Amino acid sequence: MIDLRLLREDPELFRAGQRLRGESTEVVDDLLRADEERRSVTQRFEAVRAEQKSLGKQVAKSSGDERAALLARTKELAAEVKTAETAATEADQALRRAHLAVPNLVQDGVPAGGEDDFVVLREVGDIPSIENPKDHLELGEGLRAIDTERGAKVSGSRFYFLTGVGALLQLGLLQMAVQQAVEHGFTPSITPSLVRPEAMEGTGFLGSHASEVYRLEADDLFLVGTSEVALAAYHSNEILDLTTPERFAGWSTCYRREAGSHGKDVRGILRVHQFDKVEMFSFCRPEEATDEHLRLLAMEEEMLAKVEVPYRVIDVAAGDLGSSASRKLDCEAWVPSQQRYREVTSTSNCTTFQARRLNVRYRDEDGRPQTAATLNGTLATTRWLIPILENHQQPDGSVRVPKALQPFLGGRDVLEPTR
RNA sequence: GGAGGGCUCGCCUAGUGGCCGAUGGCGCCGGUCUUGAAAACCGGUGAGGCGUUACGCGUCUCCGUGGGUUCGAAUCCCACGCCCUCCGCCA
Fold first, then answer.
1. Tens digit of each residue's pLDDT (9 = 90 or more) over A4-41
2. How far is residue A400's CA from residue A415's CA, in Å, rounded to a whole number?
3. Mind listing the domains of chain A with CATH numbers?
4. Which DSSP string corresponds to A244-288?
5. ipTM tops 0.85
6. Are strands A369-371 and A373-381 parallel, antiparallel or unpaired?
7. Which nucleotides of B are covered by protein (CB under 7 A)?
8. H or E segment at A11?
């Protein structure tokens, strides 16, 4: 949710943001109207309610005829109060609906346009020249590391088993991510992957993402698509001390229905219903959010350097941000079999948008509660196995192990195919 | 699955219809005392909206949530949610 005070002061700022996203400015004007409506209706209610309270006090003190007369008046007033209260409640609800419909303000400098209008900030590492590169599934099957056939047999399409070195590779990668996070002062966390509707709702995943989310109807719980959900809701309805940012690295399994992506990236483990991820999440003061965002990006790049994979950093265009982000920076790793870059991390600066919704606040120097800022970013996921396997492949189907990962694979520097 | 207990302003707690937006303790902040600190004592200390104004004042809302009764509800009634304990069942 956006800052209503800022909206009143400068509605044009928000209309401009909408245009940058390629979305209608109507929601902004709807919100302005709902806000004004609510204020006038609320004032009316408060006036009659104040009268009712003061008369009520007189009733308590009076007796006899005086009391009877007062009671007659207050009785009439009670009906008015009820009407006014109903109107005020309705106006509140209308305001909330309108409020939820407006996405976050876009940060200055974010490229305009949609999915294809990102700006490449930099490319890092040399693209390897590999003749007839095998893709990650072929390599993974050779190493007996990835088994999608049995994944499908047991659970359906877009499921897989990681076995042997595949399992070790993932565990090693994620452990390495957690270690790095701890070194940088993040609190390692293992988070619930089932959450209540409020948590899902509060992080905004029941909006346009609703069809992506698995729901357990019998228990009214949702499977999270990222530990961001649990981490963001962790401090909901709390007032924090944010003299320094609070940083978490959450490890969880993630679940996504991938509805509407039928036929897209069906091979291997690029786009799957279940994967594991270490996700960074920060709560900080709004004025620190921009720096914090770059810090999260630096963490991601540090990880990518450790796995020795070429990548590029892109500044995602306004139309592709999602409603809570004010700016989103993705790292895309080179995938030799596809001869293109594919997303492996994504870090978003949600400013106060998400925290306002979840009611996460902090105390400023004057002791007043203020809305916090939240940011998130990927540190490692199952998907990383793809560029790791493919970029380090050798003609015989073996795969070199990046130095940083070797300790997690019993010191091996090469994984040999078993067939 | 069965039975019971609970939900009040950071934590604990008082409060059975108007004197309650709410008691007391802990914590925290300020002061007195002290070379300094602790102790003791004194004072202050929930959140949000709106208005006014300049940091004070006014007003409304909030005692798990939603309804109801009443001129008036933390308090009475109904429904729901959540937490805890015990029993059963299963890891």
1. 988 998 999 999 999 999 999 999 999 999 998 888 88
2. 6
3. 4-100 (1.10.287.40), 119-415 (3.30.930.10)
4. S-EEEEEEEEEE---TT-TTSS-STTSS-SEEEEEEEEEEE-GGG
5. no
6. unpaired
7. 10, 18-19, 47-51, 59-61, 67, 71-72, 82
8. helix A11-21
